[in-house]
Amino acid sequence: MPKVESWEKKLAWIVSIVLGVAIVVTACITLWGKPLFDEYVLFALVITVFPSAVLDYVDYRWRRSVDEHLPDLFRSIAQARKTGMTLPQALDEASKRRYGPLTKELKKMVAQMSWGVSFEKAFQSFGKRVDTVLTRRSVPLIIEASRSGGRVERVFNPLGSFIQRTLTFEKERETQTRPYIAIVYVAFFVFLFTIVMLFKTFFVQLTELSLTWSVLLTPEEAKRVFFHMSTIQAFFGGLVAGKMGEGTVSAGLKHGVILLTSGYLAFKFII
């Protein structure tokens, strides 16, 4: 997975919001009051959210891969230090191995040190480029250990063990919260199933009876109301699922897109 820069996320939001607003404005001008208007608004919402959802997922996978390779990197540096290498030499040796997305960043750091940049500045630059939570915690500790001198390799092994335990706890948390994400999906699909049953049975019977519609919703009006309700539940349910599953609201964008698309297909082809 490639790294996603912050400017790329901002650009995606700007472009998608502009496209979404343009679609809504066009729908207001040409389709206001028509049933197709709601579909265009939903399409605009998906267009607005989808690019950022994809970028957020790619960035999440990249950061997870970086964190998962940190313990192996620290163990390699500690082993190289035990053979008598200096810290820059140990980093140079480690950069020759494969550590997923960390390999490219290591090569940049080694190149900076070969140009005369100090280890401290090169490592700080490495931390700013990678910028994961575990990297932000690890870099200051390593820099302080290098400043104090002595056997710096003693820092790497415990640090790698700490990161490994943190990743293990994170995986356990994701495993425990997975059922709650499933509940969001199940609740939404049960809601859709209920709507389908209503339109296949209840509203069909009302249409066949010669009732006065002055106090009742017509099937088309009821369909539009339920369509709005499903859209709201899909979007905000997806955000809740992302917050519970990965700890951030932005992680719920992909769930929101999935639920919005499922709801639209249900109303379009089943109801």
What does this structure look like?
Helices cover 82% and strands 0% of the residues. The protein has helices spanning 6-31, 36-82, 87-94, 102-114, 119-130, 133-148, 153-208, 219-246, 253-269. The chain has a domain at 67-167: Receptor-associated Protein, CATH 1.20.81. The protein has 271 residues and is mainly α. The chain starts with 5 loop residues before the first helix and ends with a helix. The mean pLDDT is 83.
Tell me briefly what this model is.
The protein has 271 residues and is mostly helical. It has a domain at 67-167: Receptor-associated Protein (Up-down Bundle). It has helices at residues 6-31, 36-82, 87-94, 102-114, 119-130, 133-148, 153-208, 219-246, 253-269.
Q: Secondary-structure blueprint of this entry?
A:
Layout: H1 6-31, H2 36-82, H3 87-94, H4 102-114, H5 119-130, H6 133-148, H7 153-208, H8 219-246, H9 253-269
Helix pairs in contact: 1-2, 2-3, 2-7, 2-9, 3-4, 4-5, 5-6, 6-7, 7-8, 7-9, 8-9
Order of helices and strands: HHHHHHHHH
Shape type? elongated
Strand percentage:
under 5%
Compute the average pLDDT.
Answer: 83
Count the DSSP helices: 9
In the CATH hierarchy, what is the architecture of the domain at 67-167 at level 2? Up-down Bundle
Number of strands: 0
Any idea of the CATH class of the domain at 67-167? Mainly Alpha
| Unreliable residue runs | none
State the major sheet.
none
Proportion in helices? over 70%
Q: What class would the helix/strand composition place it in?
A: mainly alpha
- In CATH, the topology of the domain at 67-167 is named Receptor-associated Protein
How far apart are the termini?
Answer: 39 Å
> What is Rg?
27 Å
